Task: structure prediction
Amino acid sequence: MLFVKHNRSTYTNLLKAWLRYKKETVKEQSYIKYYTLIEKHINPILGNMNYRSLTEKQIKAFFSDSRIANLALSTQRSLIYIIKSSINYGVSHNLCKPIGELNIKIKKPKAKIVYLTIKEQETLEKYLVLKKDIRKLGILMCLYTGIRLGEICGLCWKDIDFYNKSVSINRTVQRIKNNEKNALTKTKKIVSTPKSDSSKRTIPLPDFLIDLLLEFKSEPDNFILTNTPAFKDTRVYEKYFENALKKCNIRKLNFHTLRHTFATRCIESGMDIKTLSEILGHSSYRITLDVYVHSTIDQKRCCINNLVDYINPITEY
Result:
């Protein structure tokens, strides 16, 4: 049901109605994300405008504002979704007219992908297999599957298929804003299903990981990183990873570097983009292309050498 007062046709009120609708149709973490983006970025700039007379020019000006243009590309895309969806919601309830095609283009320079060098990866792996520990094994799994921090923290033993040598990603651990009344903490930890259908996937496991996992195998419903029914906090595990890097004298890197490293090594070894995209859980192979297809100087040198070998140029005249 719609709850927008016609005598208060501010865009803020339309967004409130849209949020009430979305709360019934999306996951809690998605609702919290939308709510936060609206409060932090949309309302301060567009909130007091009349949604009945909102124009494409005003919306494009919003995305040209330095406060918005300097945000992460993923954040800008989420803002585009919120604005388009809320306007469509208003149109469907005969509150406002469509605003053209709202063809909003945002351009951001490609962020440099940071990944472990071959030498750093070898150093880290030697540390991880020394004095075996289930937490170390979790890091090793991320290096050879590309799974995310929340996904490794949400992994249970029942997700490992030892016969078919694979792991299924069925849940993720997240820390989200706590909007509960009288909440004692600003954030709360939840276990939920993966963020999209493509994120719910099955990944083959190499034999050496299967052998290591068998040494720690526990009850099906136990979380792998704790071997108990309680999951590992993402912040705690990320801190553990940081300490592992320190012990290896490796530069400070965030946990997501493991995913970048996996993807980079896959491309370097010749894996096709479609396969890599499915393993990473991307919704489109174009995302994989945009993010991960970059050539190192060694790759470029190898390609040039292959060209020379193929052509076999005349070097003597």
The mean pLDDT is 87. DSSP finds 14 helices and five strands in the chain.
